[in-house]
Q: What sequence folds into this?
């Protein structure tokens, strides 16, 4: 990317990154006296700072080179590192399409950056006409696109994303936390065509490892090198790396769980559509469904009083609840309660 270096914050361009003990040595050794570790125990050694085995398996599955992969402590860490790499506090800006995932706003605020929020249109798609004028702002460094979008559930139109990728001179991040539940390929297949593209994914959703905190960034090797320079040296614990490796080695479990979630999703859409308490069931490409009711706060309180917790999204979209797809038994409990609620 010809202007990539110009996009990196000047203080980071001139940064001498921390080099860990494990960065400096290459080769085979049997006596490790370089990192002030305790010589006893099983978790006594620092983890691989570059998560090589985990990346090898991701690379095998995606056919994307390990040099184009970054692993974060959840994709939330990736989002924050992107701010820190490209967005100068107090001066630079990022842009996103609302309503969307809340961490772009939080990360922007933490990094003292203005977040421009362009409202999605009535079908929750990007309003290009409203967006394009902002792309020429020299202080706009990063555009965050969440697709499938949280909390609306839908994929964003491919042509609009292509337009943004072509028109914008800064970094375009496509957050694909929910891509495994959508019937489209990942944007990570397009990295060669768009050097300014960063695709994020996570092990927290379809891979069932929310507790482990593993996020992925796919991008061109130069962007990945820059992210590596600013990341905390041992950002992904050995336990978490192992959990990711085990998960990738058990692909059948992942595939069958995604299928079960998708079939429950289809069932819930049908059942929700027939319930008088629900006014609207929004289309979804994710593992959750956004529904509209007459009084979301009341409905939310009624469900929590029965021990069922959904997400009240009314502040973003009036009278909506976001419902994650649970197990068949959990979904049945939810349906039973919804059927009994007074309309
Ligand atoms: C769109 C989106 N991106 C990222 C995340 C965070 O993922 P992680 O658990 O990998 O930090 C979430 C979590 O809900 C999300 O909805």
A:
């Amino acid at each position: 990317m010809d202007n990539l270096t110009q996009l990196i914050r000047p203080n980071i361009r001139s940064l001498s990154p921390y080099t860990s003990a494990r960065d400096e040595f290459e080769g085979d050794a049997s006596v490790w006296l370089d990192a002030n570790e305790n010589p006893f125990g099983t978790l006594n050694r620092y983890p691989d700072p570059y998560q090589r085995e985990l990346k090898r398996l991701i690379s095998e599955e995606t056919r994307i080179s390990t040099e184009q992969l970054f692993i974060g402590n959840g994709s939330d860490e990736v989002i924050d590192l992107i701010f820190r790499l490209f967005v100068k506090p107090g001066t630079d800006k990022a842009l996103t399409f609302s309503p969307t995932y809340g961490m772009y706003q939080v990360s922007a605020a933490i990094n003292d950056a203005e977040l421009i929020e362009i409202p999605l249109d009535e079908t929750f798609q990007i309003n290009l006409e409203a967006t394009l004028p902002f792309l020429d702002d020299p202080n706009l460094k990063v555009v965050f696109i969440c697709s499938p979008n949280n909390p609306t559930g839908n994929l964003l139109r491919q042509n609009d994303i292509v337009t943004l990728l072509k028109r914008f001179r800064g970094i375009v991040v496509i957050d694909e936390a929910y891509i495994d539940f959508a019937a489209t390929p990942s944007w990570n297949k397009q990295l060669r065509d768009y050097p300014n593209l960063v695709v994020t994914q996570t092990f927290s959703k379809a891979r069932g490892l929310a507790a482990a905190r593993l996020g992925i960034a796919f991008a061109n090797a130069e962007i990945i090198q820059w992210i590596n320079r600013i990341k905390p040296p041992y950002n992904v614990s050995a336990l978490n790396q192992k959990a990711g490796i085990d998960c990738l080695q058990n692909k059948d479990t992942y595939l069958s769980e995604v299928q079960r979630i998708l079939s429950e999703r289809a069932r819930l859409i049908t059942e929700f559509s027939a319930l008088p308490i629900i006014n609207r069931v929004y289309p979804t490409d994710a593992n959750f469904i956004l529904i509209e009711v007459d009084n979301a706060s009341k409905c939310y309180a009624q469900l929590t009083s029965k021990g069922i917790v959904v997400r009240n999204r009314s502040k973003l979209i009036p009278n909506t609840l976001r419902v994650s797809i649970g197990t068949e038994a959990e979904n049945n409990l939810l349906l039973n309660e919804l059927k009994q609620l007074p309309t």
